[in-house]
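Q: Predict the assembly, please.
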Amino acid sequence: MTTLATPPQETNEPERPELITPAQPRIGRWILFGAMLGVAVVMLYPFWVMIVTSLHSEQQFLSGGGFSWLSWSNLSATIPVGQEVLSSTIVCSTSIFVILCVGLPAGFAFSKLRFRTSTTVFLVIVSAMMVPLQAILMPEFVNVTKLGLTGGYFGAILVYAALGTPFSTFLFTTYFRGVPDELIEAGIVDGLGYVGVLGRLIVPVAVPAIATVTVLQFIQIWDDLLVGLLFIQNTNERPITVGLAVLAAGRTTSIPELMAGSLVSALPAMLVYLGFQRYLVKGLTMGIDR
Amino acid sequence: MSVIATRAPRPMRAGRMTLRRRRQFAGFFFALPAIALVIGFIGVPIGQAVYYSFTSWNGLTSQWIGPSTWSQAFHNSNLWTALQNNALLLLSVPFALGLPLLIAVLLHQRVAGWRIFRSIYFMPTAISWVVLGLVAERFFAYQGTLNSIIHAVGFAHTNTNMLGYESTALSALGITFVFTMIGTNTMLFLTGLATLDPTLEEAARIDGAGRWRIFRSITLPHLSRFIQLAFVMTVIALFSALFSLIFVMTGGGPGYATTTMEFLIYQTGFNQGDFGTAALYGIILFVLTGIVGVVQLRLIGSNE
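A: Predicted assembly structure:
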């Protein structure tokens, strides 16, 4: 309680330093700095728990002391992390590829090549963003199973692609509205044809939007549980998030090892996040801050 | 190049319609995969869910029952418990918005090292809610951080086990939810604050407005659109993204204390094999999020 609830106590301060007159800015700055440090402690707590806990053996964890690399050396025996990270990578990259291949041309079409009813169709696709998978879970599961796609990765990839398409279509449409019509007209006059314009002129200018979609979808899909849990039936093909969740729900795996596995699973998404932070922010606020 | 330039004027007149039609055809062609994917995997299942909500369905065979499935469902106490849990969890939304707002204002003061702080605050956003759920379980556990803190503060004999009791498990889930939303919402508000014109504040200050007055009369109204967006995203997450947390933290228990609508759908379908009722619950969830979705669409619409 206290740790998670520290922000309210400390963040009571922000108004106070603000109220401080220029005559005493130094104290205000220090209070502010202290408050920010406090919030940082809370936000770093998950990493601290994972690191510290994983550096105990199960015995040490239960007795509450000591240090050991045991959970790390035993990790791959308990959790097939290598295989699971590979599965996550395959599912993630293929899904994102499909999402881009489908969303980018659609965004181009809805912004620049408007056809009859395209506004309505666009609105329908965008509103699909609001449909939670759980709402259509049962028919979706039965459909994909009947198509025989739950055996490998294909079912999960298609579901992820379908769930990611509305957002990517929306983002690309918004983005391409800023592209001048003259660019497309010039391409057509030059005899490129619409496919040529898309491939040679539109894709190159879309790189920032592609990056945004990729980063957001990577984190979303890498971190997802439900789709991987239900649409990948073969336990040898489980993504790492699913593997962790299933072990955790089973409550028989040693907690230090679970924490070591959690750290492994968190690492790729963390790296992507730290490397591409600004694209993440851009994607989240798309369509509101312009 | 020149060949095309000389050729272009000729079909222009006769082919104006065809040129336009070609463009429209290309547009439709480019949009088709997205349309197909969304209709096939989202549109069709919505229709199926409505149909199957009137049947008894185990995933293989279904039998038409009719509207009585709905009246029966509304007599099921589990449905009301789940709806009640969802409603109670809504109480966490003010915290999931208020705390990030305060943190964003803190960051916006640009105190030394604020960039590093910003990176740290957003870091949990990248982590799976499965992992955050596991960490939260450690936090609330009998031998977890929460009790250590309580002991350290001086209540050596007070022990909590929030996830273990029906009365407190939902609160623990709500607190975890607030924590998981902090990064995203802070990010949103910080972006909003960055677009605020500093000369406005300066002018107000010269006019003698205090800091609090400036915050209330300038900053907050400026952020209103960002707050609306954050509100919608938070409520949608509350209805459809808690699955991971519940799955690893409580499994919906103790009893049905932390079973929300989305988890009830999963349980009814996959633990009890009652696909028909699960589809019906899905429609209810669909309507609930649809209400929030309409608000969101109006936000997007008003922007264009």
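The longest strand of chain B covers residues 55-57. Chain B touches chain A through 120 residues (CB under 8 Å).
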